Structures are given as C-alpha cells and as structure tokens.
C-alpha cells in the first residue's frame, strides 16, 4: 500500500469535517467529488448553492453528500460575527467589519467554522496565496499551545527511492518563513519531526541541511545551521537530529558514513530542514518535477487546528491528498 493510500485508509476510519472555501475553483469541486466518493471526510463547500450546482453539472460531477453553505444565508452568521468581534475587538473589529469579512471573504468564514467547532479543519490555496490562507488562520485560530512558530512543510513521496522512509520525506520550511533565525530553524525542526511522526507513523530522523558537512565550509550561513542544531538538540533531547549536513550526507548511507561517521542521522534522514525558503522551495520543486515525486503541501504546522495551504499550481488529485492528510491531522488532536 502506497503512502497516500495508507493516509486515506486512516482518514476513513474516523471521518472528520473539512471545509473547502474555494468553491469557485473547478479543481476544488473535482477534488470534493472524489473525496466524497472515497468517503475520506465530511465536506463543506462555501459558496452559492446554484453556482456550485451549475458548475458541478457542467463538469459532470456528483457532489451528493456535500454540505453547501452560503454565508449570507447561514443561520450561524450572527454567532460567527459575535465570535469574530470577540476575538478581534482589540484590533478594532466591529460587527460591520466582521459581517463584511464573513460574507465576502470565504476563507474567513471557513476558519471561523473551524474555530467554532463546526468543522475540524480547512483546505485552501488553490486560488489564494499562502498569505491569504494564513492571515485568517493566525488571526482567528492562533498558534498551538507551546508552539513558537508557524511553518510550512511538504510531504514528499518519491517513487522507486531507497532513501528516507521508503522514499517518503518531510521537507521544511518550503512555503512560509523566508530566512529563519537559528532559533526559528530549531523550532521548525521540532514541529516537522512531530508532523512526520503523526502522518507517516515512523520515527523521524532529522537533518539540518547546509552546503557544509560538519565544518567542511566556513560561512555565516553555516554558523546559523550549526547554532540551530545546538538549540534543537537542547530543546528536543529525545529526537534523532544532527547537522550541519549536506543533502547527500544526510540521505545516502555510503556518503553519510564517510562525511559524518559519528552521526546517527547521516545517511538515514527522513526529515530535511532547509536553511531558508529559497533552498526549500527550489528543493521540493526539483524533486517533484525531476523525480516525478508526489508533493503534498505546503501543509502548515503550529496552528491550533489544521488549516492546510495548497500550491496554486496544484491538481485536483493533490487536493484530494491534502484533504485526507488534513483529516488525519484532525484525528491526531482529538
């Protein structure tokens, strides 16, 4: 059974309610039809009933079983307005502003549903930027207890690959933090290890990546990764984590044993922490395109409840996978 098949199996065991606010995007509707057929989750589409039905018919989709909510007609609108005002009154939120956001910005309505407990998680980003998705999430849901930083990761599933966990990796941060400090890199490492464990079910082995391996190069960028490794080892003493490591030393056993013979991580890593957003974003896209890998994400970690972002270049199959992953994340915080 492949990785995403196993995730789907887990999702079906305890169905969660996932809200999809981008009902105007045909990929979202296509993904909803597949997810409903496969019984991965209870789904909520935000939008106009007639428009959704019209688009579904034009696409030949069966959306039987989906819940459609038009915020303007919702019997929960007033309670959501009150909730949003209470949460954001210190920032100048008024009932008028709250109503405007909830009825016009479907991402805000979706996140408020999650906050109110009327949905377990949300998936968006097919037609919105990461900033658009995360803004309401951080304003309304805020960070999870004990979390210092919200970050983004990709679950990478590489076919015919003997590295990582049978070709499965977590890549972080590939979608959010531009140039994290050493302290932030350490926090990203801790969150990423937790994400790997909850989704893959195997022990995370974390490599702090660099263009240097154990002092082979001298540069301020290397110093940052060295310091991040020190902080992460101090904060997460039970975690298998090491650095700084070049990519080949991190995942290829023969190279890891030569370049870092005393490391329990070298050659075995399945969680790769990139030193900045440039390298992380370039890295995941190279693997996705050249190795024909499945790339699920960017998934967020560190928000109080699961809200996952999508690449605007995603396929509807990608969205189906992220719906299943989000459902499993929701199960983990029951």
Would you kindly provide a written description of the structure presented here, covering whatever features stand out?
This protein has helices at residues 3-13, 26-37, 49-59, 77-88, 95-104, 106-116, 130-141, 182-200, 220-235, 247-251, 253-259, 277-290, 316-332; strands at residues 17-20, 42-46, 67-69, 121-124, 151-157, 168-172, 205-209, 240-245, 271-273, 294-301, 307-309. It is of the alpha/beta class. The chain has 2 domains: 3-142 and 313-332, Rossmann fold (3-Layer(aba) Sandwich); 151-290, Rossmann fold. Strand 1, helix 2 and strand 2 (42-46) form a beta-alpha-beta unit. 51% of the residues are buried.
The CATH architecture classification of the largest domain is 3-Layer(aba) Sandwich
Helix and strand composition category: alpha/beta
Q: What share of residues are in beta strands?
A: 15-25%
Quaternary state, please? single chain
Number of spatially distinct domains? 2
**SSE order:** HEHEHEHHHEHEEHEHEHHEHEEH
Number of strand segments? 11
Give the CA-CA distance, first to last residue. Answer: 26 Å
Overall pLDDT metric = 92
What would CATH call the class of the largest domain?
Alpha Beta
Largest sheet: 6 strands, mixed
Short description:
The chain has 334 residues and is of the alpha/beta class. It contains 13 helices and 11 strands.
